[in-house]
Amino acid sequence: MKVTIIGAGFSGLSLAYFLIKKGFQVEVFETKSSPGGLIQTIETDRGLVETAATSVLLTSDLEEIIKDININCFLPKKKSRKKYICVNHSPKRIPLKLIDLLSLFKGIVKLLLNKKKVAPLKNESLSSWSDRVFNSEVTKKLVSPAMTGIYADSANNLSASLVLKKVFTKEKKSRSKGPVNFKGGMGNFIQALEKFLIKNHVQFHYDSQVDDFNTISNPVVIATSYQQARELNIDLPIIPLKDVSSVTLFFDGTPPLEGFGTLFPLEENLSSQGVLFNTSMFEGRTKTGYSETWILSNKTDLSKDKLLELILEDRDKVFKTNESPVDSMIHHWPEAFPLYGKELEALLYKEPNLPKSVFLTGNYLGNLGLSGIIEQNKLLSIKMSQELI
Ligand SMILES: Cc1cc2nc3c(=O)[nH]c(=O)nc-3n(C[C@H](O)[C@H](O)[C@H](O)COP(=O)(O)OP(=O)(O)OC[C@H]3O[C@@H](n4cnc5c(N)ncnc54)[C@H](O)[C@@H]3O)c2cc1C
Fold first, then answer.
1. DSSP state letter for 139
2. Candidates 3.90.190.10, 3.50.50.60, 3.40.50.300, 1.10.4160.10; correct CATH number of 77-113+122-177+241-338?
3. DSSP secondary structure letter of residue 45
4. Class assignment of domain 2-38+182-239+339-388?
5. Residue 290: how many CB atoms within 10 A of its CB?
6. Segments of the chain assigned to CATH 3.50.50.60
7. Which residues form the pocket of ligand 1, taking CB atoms under 6 Å from any ligand atom?
8. Which terminus of the chain has fewer CB atoms gathered within 10 Å of its CB, N or C?
9. Taking a C-beta distance cutoff of 8 angstroms, is the pair 322, 284 a contact?
10. Ligand 1, closest atom to CA 229?
11. 351 alpha carbon to ligand 1 midpoint, in Å?
């Protein structure tokens, strides 16, 4: 049976992989002239720039894909084990006082001994959940910055049940061996996956935007962003969307700090959400000097100069350095994903109303990260083979 996928981003490509394994014939339509969607790697004179994801969690499903598509992955360098959170504009590996560490420990024990009792309530925000299970300092200095770094909003606005889904799910979880990247970056992974799919007779139609999926007679999977699915007249409500910018800076010399990166709690009043230390994270990121990737939300309307000015101010406050970058590259992603808040929680509580033989995948169905999208697509391929074959 033939299936049409709309969108050749990570969601569309990884679903195509699982569908061909189930014996489906697959064709993919993509507006742009190449695959990957948000994920691209740009090779510059100074090193690699990742436009969105800088790593993916290595699960057993990803290991299977990596083996099939014949690409090597890199584990992070040892020095990237150090992760920091800012306290009073100073990066700390342990951002909590002893008394708050004790609350954290007690909360973890409660989690281990009586998961049901501490499970998130319907409509509970992440901050209320964390205050309930740990305390408000743990929320402000650890839980909120950690999740803001991923979901680009404060713990007050995030839904506890959505962002903690993996912790509380009853389904068998695929264990992760930590983040990995690939020689030549995430873009090389996308290219190897596309090559494997073409070899297995998947037909790609680039520069081919689908405006009306009702004209397609096969079963259809819409593998676009939330907003793009709404533009295809899928019955999805208006919910808040996140605009995210990723800014890669290249510097000469040696980095002010080595590790994975630093997260910034909202109370620090910085413009950025956090910074990743690319050069100390994976091999082969920079040819000379070092690079950092800064993540900011709701700043996609700012000019390049203004954005750089804000980042250099943050850099000065946190790393006490006024070094100027020798090169920089900015990627704005307006409406990249929905706010993982109460509106999305309400939407996912019941299955969206879809026309017959139309399916959805994407980063708005409870899985924002790539390893979750892989898991979601494996399950979708099983559901589709049960319903369609
Ligand atoms: C700055 C940033 C950093 C991130 N970092 C990480 C990370 O480190 N690790 C991680 O796991 N995740 C990360 N993520 C999340 C992850 O990158 C995304 O969730 C994922 O790439 C989304 O892929 P997608 O295919 O669902 O959507 P997209 O990448 O948006 O792809 C959708 C595709 O559909 C196409 N399309 C849309 N409408 C149509 C149409 N009508 N017809 C044809 N084609 C259409 C689009 O052109 C696009 O190519 C990050 C996200 C961002 C924004």
1. I
2. 3.50.50.60
3. S
4. alpha beta
5. 21
6. 2-38+182-239+339-388, 77-113+122-177+241-338
7. 6-12, 29-32, 37-39, 52-56, 209-210, 223-225, 228, 232, 244, 246, 295, 333, 336-337, 362-363, 368-370
8. C
9. no
10. 38
11. 22
Question: For every one of its 389 residues, what pLDDT tens digit does the chain have, with 9 covering 90 and above?
Answer: 999 999 999 999 999 999 999 999 999 999 999 999 999 999 999 999 999 999 999 999 999 999 999 999 999 999 999 999 999 999 999 999 999 999 999 999 999 999 999 999 999 999 999 999 999 999 999 999 999 999 999 999 999 999 999 899 877 767 899 999 999 999 999 999 999 999 999 999 999 999 999 999 999 999 999 999 999 999 999 999 999 999 999 999 999 999 999 999 999 999 999 999 999 999 999 999 999 999 999 999 999 999 999 999 999 999 999 999 999 999 999 999 999 999 999 999 988 889 999 999 999 999 999 999 999 999 999 999 999 98
Distances (CA, A) of 177 to 60, 79, 92, 258, 370: 9, 17, 25, 22, 14
Alpha carbon of 253 to ligand 1 centroid (Å): 33
Q: Whose CA is nearest to atom 32 of ligand 1?
A: 224
Could you tell me which residues are beta bridge partners of residue 159? 125
pTM above 0.90, yes or no: yes
